[in-house]
Design brief:
four-stranded antiparallel sheet, globular, alpha+beta
Protein backbone atom coordinates (compact mmCIF):
# COMPACT_ATOMS: atom_id res chain seq x y z
CA UNK A 1 0.00 0.00 0.00
CA UNK A 2 1.29 3.42 -0.94
CA UNK A 3 0.31 5.81 1.83
CA UNK A 4 -0.04 9.45 0.85
CA UNK A 5 1.36 12.44 2.63
CA UNK A 6 -0.46 15.67 3.45
CA UNK A 7 1.40 18.91 4.08
CA UNK A 8 -0.12 22.20 5.19
CA UNK A 9 1.63 25.54 5.49
CA UNK A 10 0.48 29.05 6.30
CA UNK A 11 2.24 32.39 6.30
CA UNK A 12 1.37 36.04 6.66
CA UNK A 13 2.63 38.35 3.95
CA UNK A 14 1.70 42.04 4.00
CA UNK A 15 -2.09 42.14 4.60
CA UNK A 16 -2.66 38.56 3.50
CA UNK A 17 -2.55 35.07 4.93
CA UNK A 18 -1.55 32.37 2.46
CA UNK A 19 -2.54 28.77 3.20
CA UNK A 20 -1.24 25.91 1.08
CA UNK A 21 -2.15 22.22 1.24
CA UNK A 22 -0.62 19.40 -0.79
CA UNK A 23 -2.04 15.88 -0.67
CA UNK A 24 -0.10 13.09 -2.39
CA UNK A 25 -2.50 10.78 -4.20
CA UNK A 26 -2.19 7.62 -6.24
CA UNK A 27 -4.48 8.89 -8.99
CA UNK A 28 -5.23 11.98 -11.06
CA UNK A 29 -9.02 11.99 -10.99
CA UNK A 30 -10.96 15.10 -11.97
CA UNK A 31 -11.60 17.48 -9.09
CA UNK A 32 -15.06 16.95 -7.60
CA UNK A 33 -16.36 19.93 -5.66
CA UNK A 34 -17.77 18.63 -2.40
CA UNK A 35 -18.76 20.32 0.83
CA UNK A 36 -15.16 21.00 1.90
CA UNK A 37 -14.17 22.79 -1.29
CA UNK A 38 -17.42 24.80 -1.28
CA UNK A 39 -16.77 25.84 2.34
CA UNK A 40 -13.22 26.93 1.52
CA UNK A 41 -14.48 29.01 -1.42
CA UNK A 42 -17.21 30.58 0.73
CA UNK A 43 -14.70 31.62 3.40
CA UNK A 44 -12.26 32.96 0.79
CA UNK A 45 -15.06 35.02 -0.76
CA UNK A 46 -16.09 36.36 2.67
CA UNK A 47 -12.54 37.65 3.27
CA UNK A 48 -12.02 38.98 -0.29
CA UNK A 49 -9.66 36.12 -1.03
CA UNK A 50 -9.02 33.58 -3.72
CA UNK A 51 -8.75 29.80 -4.04
CA UNK A 52 -6.61 27.86 -6.50
CA UNK A 53 -7.09 24.09 -6.86
CA UNK A 54 -4.87 21.80 -8.92
CA UNK A 55 -4.70 18.05 -9.38
CA UNK A 56 -1.53 17.25 -11.27
CA UNK A 57 1.45 14.94 -11.11
CA UNK A 58 -0.26 12.73 -8.49
CA UNK A 59 -0.72 15.69 -6.11
CA UNK A 60 -3.93 17.47 -5.07
CA UNK A 61 -3.06 21.09 -4.23
CA UNK A 62 -5.16 23.82 -2.66
CA UNK A 63 -3.92 27.37 -2.17
CA UNK A 64 -5.99 29.96 -0.32
CA UNK A 65 -5.29 33.68 -0.11
CA UNK A 66 -7.23 35.67 2.51
CA UNK A 67 -7.14 39.43 3.12
CA UNK A 68 -6.49 40.30 6.75
CA UNK A 69 -8.51 43.11 8.31
CA UNK A 70 -6.67 46.39 8.88
Amino acid sequence: LNKGKISISAKVQSNFIIIKEVNDTNKCDPIVEGTGIRNIKTIANKYNGAVKILNDNMKFKVSVLLCLPN
